[in-house]
Hints:
Residues 1-21 form the signal peptide. The chain is mainly α and 450 residues long. The protein has two domains: 35-55 and 260-416, Cytochrome c-like domain (Cytochrome Bc1 Complex, Chain D, domain 2), CATH 1.10.760; 58-258 and 422-447, Cytochrome c-like domain (Cytochrome Bc1 Complex, Chain D, domain 2, Orthogonal Bundle), CATH 1.10.760. It has twelve helices and four strands.
Amino acid sequence: MKSFGLWICSLLVLAVLSASCVRDEAVSTLDTELEKTLLRLSENGSLSYYMLPDGSNLAGIPAGIGNPLTPEKVELGKLLFHETALGRDALNPENLRTFSCSTCHVADAAFTAGAFQGIADGGMGFGEAGQGRRMDPNYAEENIDAQGARPLSMLGVAYVTNSMWAGRFGARGDNAHYEDIWGVFDPTTELNHLGLDGLEAQNIEGTVVHRMSTDAYLLDTLGYRRLFDRAFPEFAGEAKYGRVAMSFALSAYIRTVLPNQAPWQDWLRGNKSALTEDQKRGAQLFFGKAGCFRCHNGPALNGNTFHAIGVKDLYEFPGGARRTGPNDGRNLGRGDFTRRPEDLYKFKVPQVYNTSDMPFYFHGASHQSLRDVVEYFNAGVPENDNVPTANISEYFHPLNLTEQEVTDLTDFLAEGLRDPNLRRYVPERVLSGNCFPSSDAVAKADMGCE
């Protein structure tokens, strides 16, 4: 009887070990097949093509032309990005110094807006992650700082050559062929003649558009002058504290905001248990059958190309958006910049990390769940009748994914590409001591700060 019991126990142990081996073999097979796919697509023949550098490894992060990355610039930019005291050009006195870059690029919302439309000056409130931001009734609508498209995420923009949905800023890349129209149709693109990359040029203009500037109070009373002095010893006179210096500091910081703690990055570095089996199948779909990689590639899983996928514009958002409408040129995407018919309704390819933290998707905020986005691409049917069929991207067509494949792909996007610790890029405090991202009375009440 005792021998029989031992025999049964031995069988059970063998069964458990066998099942474990099967599971290990299945996971190993998924890993092996995924690695093969990635190596085939990699531009350098290595998994390193998809790896993001550490945010502190400044030498490994792409820098902008004329703006080498230094710890001093990054430190200053990190503070300025969240500093509401920079908002000194508000149109109403009661709104002075109550908004910041982070008002519309919220860390908890993947560095994009928590509300469907970003509002800086002329907005009030914040909520928990920016979703409570709304128009201040003391402002006329035409006076608020609200844009006609959702703010793009700041994640991974170190890998962006031409910034904004239309790619209008930046002297390199696709814009190098359009020097003759810089500043012609859009006066702000005159900045491209400075020869800068998109982020640096955009942020110069951004300080104007978003009503931000330095003054004696910010520099001397709050103590930012010494930080500018450390960051820009080569700048002469007042230029050291001007818009170019502000932009260079902001851009240096933003370039370090990388989602390098996502499970996907951990998997690429060798921890094959960082992704679940479902997420590995989703990754295989991303780089295979679903074809996502054709637009979203490289370390940041973004692209410096423009595509029309026929989504709705922001003015069509239920309840209405502010300061936009059917005739808003921003609805035309890349075509509004180039004035070429073939570029109409084409928008920049965004990055796809931390998309599960985003409450809205696409330039018009027309979708509100990540699975809905995947299902939209799977169906391959444009929702905006204004977009000519001839302009629709060749990659936008029915994908014929099964329900399980949609689930696996969504899981990879939602969890495999989610960096859970983006708050490491947020300072504990800013020199003003103000609440941030916003410091109007309603926002402070929302956030429970003084």
